[in-house]
Amino acid sequence: MMDSKNRADSAGITRDYFDALLVEMRHIGAAAPDTSFELYGQTFGTPVMPAALSHLYRVRENGMVELAKAAVSVNTPMWAGMGDTKELEDILATGAKTIKIIKPYADHEKIFSRIEHAEKAGALAVGMDLDHAFSRKGVFDEIEGEEMTSKSYEEFASFVKATHLPFVLKGVLSTRDAELCLKAGARGIVVSHHHGLMDYAVPPLMILPEIAKVIGGAIPIFVDCGIQSGMDVFKALALGATAVSVGRALLFPLKENGHKGAAEEMLSITAGLRHAMGMTASKSLRDIDGSLIHMRRF
């Protein structure tokens, strides 16, 4: 459990919530699990994806490209965060089916330009961070010298309509925003608090079942924040996720062994997911549901 001095830490709260969820076993009728899933017309081998990371040159030279190579090798979608157009082109050159997430820049011309570039470059999908407009000082954030601003519903809807690609909105942590994303025409949402941009943020898996009910299977739901193991993935899928993103757990393997290290970590997490599926008679990802999950009460 968290130290009492860190009770506001949303990342710690999220970890505690993961660990409070228990899984029942089911053995009769079990079979070798299939972790494949379909997304935007493509079939992938695992729902364990790299998160929409940025600035990985600080971790390893050409870190984003190395991560893309890892995604290709395990047959999963690649997510790309903040970075220039050349970096996205280099990522796509690996063959990675990439979802490009764009920051909520104050300059809307830059947003539309990045959306257009992602489409022309061959991205699988494009999207935007909902949750990175404000700094912890309560003013609009500045990232890498770029000013951010909050956006209205009408502005988000205009970004969605600016491309033929599926548009994903990242940073959904309420049924209210989920409803608005669906109304705006989003074709995917990421349930996330961006690893604790706000203290005391609700854990993604706590709000996930309510969001899934609002979405009603109309679009994919992704979960980001604190995924460390195959059992974490299993719990997220059981509560309504289509697939999950792994961020910090990939950084050390990426630093030490490049794309091979990141791929090995994703494969290890996927193996943990298969084990959980086998022990719950979940033959495919579609068989994983909320009836398998129980809250710790002792």
Could you walk me through the main structural features you see in this protein, from its secondary elements to its overall organization?
With 298 residues, the chain is of the alpha/beta class. Helices cover 39% and strands 17% of the residues. The longest helix is centred in the C-terminal third of the chain and has 31 residues, at 248-278. The two termini are 14 Å apart.
Give descriptors for this structure.
TIM Barrel, 298 residues, single chain, 14 strands, eight-stranded parallel β-sheet, 17% strand, two-stranded antiparallel ribbon, alpha/beta, 9 helices
Mean pLDDT: 96
Described by its quaternary structure, the protein is single chain
- How would you classify the helix and strand content by structural class? alpha/beta
The CATH superfamily label reads Aldolase class I
Kindly report the spatial arrangement of strands forming the biggest sheet: 4-13-12-11-10-7-6-5
CATH topology: TIM Barrel
Taking the alpha carbons of the first and last residues, their distance comes to 14 Å
Give me the strand/helix succession. HEEEEHEHEHEEEHEHEHEHEHE
DSSP strand count? 14
Specify Rg, calculated over alpha carbons.
18 Å
CATH class descriptor: Alpha Beta
Helix content: 25-40%
Note the main sheet.
8 strands, parallel
The global form is globular
By DSSP (H or I, 4+ residues per run), the number of helices equals 9
Beta-strand residue fraction: 15-25%
CATH architectural designation: Alpha-Beta Barrel
Total separate domains: 1
